[in-house]
Amino acid sequence: GGPRRLLLVSNSTLHGGGYLGHCQQHIQSFLGQKVKRVLLIPYALHDRDAYARTAREKFESLGYGLDSIHESCDPVEAVRKSEAIFIGGGNTFRLLKALYDNSLIHEIRKRVLEDGIPYMGSSAGTNVATISINTTNDMPIVYPPSLQALGLVPFNINPHYLDPDVKSTHMGETREERIRQYHEEPNTPPVLGLREGAMLLVEGDKATLQGVTGARLFLRGKKPTEHEPGTDFSFLLTDSNPLN
To answer: What pLDDT does residue 63 have?
Structure first.
């Protein structure tokens, strides 16, 4: 476990609020006063300049400077010098491919797991913090060299988790059915379905569900279970995982 500190948010914008509005107090208590500048990795969206403007405005309003990695001539060096990393949402496949293309997987892992700098992800940025992006909701619009992600935690997350609508006549697969299909494959890790408005705080070997909505936990071969904010998910960090 080491000194890792992660804030893994399901979504950047909650209905009725602004960008990162629903989790801004969590961000401030997570980053604290020691962090002065945050490194944004905006690779999940095509328009990185616009992304950086939006994020910069928000983080500056919370008292933090923000540098975007796409403005740096040396992305690896930017990660090595960073005080905190924020990877936002967009397309998870595009994001992971860019992390591989820029040789950042190992560097980010080292900064977070060995050096203990705070890592915040939302949506796609939460997906890539886990073992793999197998449980993303996104379309594979580009082809990363691997679906293996940063592995900052030994399980997977499904952000924007949606419960089946009992009134809907839509006959497509529910999110739960898709996760069950994933678990039909051997040696697949747990999947935490984070509803919009939920986030997971990881500090060392402790993981706690935060936010305003709950989460649904899927373990291979077991019935899914429902969890409220405040749930201690630390066991997910220590469970022997075949992929770790």
So the answer is: 96
